[in-house]
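Minutes, project huddle
Topic: does the predicted pose make sense with fructose -6-phosphate bound?
PN asked that the exact inputs be recorded in the minutes so nobody has to dig through chat later. Recorded below.
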Amino acid sequence: EKGGYDHFMMKEIYEQPSVIKDTYRGRLLANIGIVQMSGVEDNLEKFLNAKRILVVACGTSWHAGLVAEYIIEEFSRIPVEVEYASEFRYRNPIINKDDVVIAISQSGETADTLAAIKLAKENGAFVFGVCNVVGSSISRETHAGAYTHAGPEIGVASTKAFTTQITILTLLALRLAKAKGTLSNSDYQRYLLELELIPEKVEEALLTNDIAKKIAEIYKDASNCLYLGRGYNFPVALEGALKLKEISYIHAEGYPAAEMKHGPIALIDESMPVIVIAPNKGHYDKVVSNIQEIKSRSGKIIAVVTKGDTQVKALADHVIEIPETNEPFTPLLTTIPLQLLSYHIAVLRGCNVDQPRNLAKSVTVE
Ligand code: F6R
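Predicted holo structure (tokens), as shared on screen:
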């Protein structure tokens, strides 16, 4: 049932090329310039009239929401706010009738997310769900939605749910951009064609497994770890750190790279591995100077770079190369080696990868 892999997590990491494709199949018709999801088509006016979009979610799904914030704002110019469902529901939030609330949940059973949905509905908002489990509580409680087609996710640490959630939210952003005319035709078309290529690029990103394993052997005994990224890859830094914490029990934190100088840089010494997500897009030069700052304080740099990179390579202790893509789609690729790295570190530390201590697959308590 693990398909020849030692753990469900590894099987699920390797399923990503095919489940991303399953998630956009029939919805992304790149050659004729169409993106369609019935839950969106049926409610297009609600999305187009929305003054803002509120995203509510927890954990990894919340990280997917942060990626979506960047993509939706960039492509469709609708303001997006992303909230932890648990904070949203307990703080008397402002919810308007013309708000669209997007609830993201793999299991569809997360109690805090469910409660946030109920609150949004009571206040008259339209609630759209992005769930993986068909017929789950959240899929029933929302007005409409789009399923991720990730298939059952058994490993407690979420992997393929994350990348398929981003896929759905990217399709949504593109659909809204088309309706609103916020992307030029050529950019719109270029993004559609590029999205279609993502599964094969994820396949290529999975070839980083050997190097991820080698790096894991070097750093498996670290007691702390920092993850840095900017822009679209800031949420990936958070997600990379969460994955490491959950399954290896190493203390890890994700930060926007530019925040280093406002505090976390004090942590850097020769025993601190710093994972820097540094694709050749989006403020690359700034990331390079962040790397220099860490190097000059003797931190160990593990960098995720675009194939063919030279500048970061010259500075980093280790590099992991991923294929080139458009900036908004880089999270779908940069996240892959970070999943693999966490996996190998956890295995080398003898941890129970699929069922980490203290965690449950769906959190149905508040
Ligand atoms: C992370 C993880 C959790 C879940 C969170 C939300 O690997 O598994 O952080 O992402 O509990 O769960 P869902 O998406 O089912 O609402």
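Observations noted during the meeting:
- The longest strand covers residues 99-105.
- DSSP finds 15 helices and twelve strands in the chain.
No decisions taken; revisit at the next huddle.
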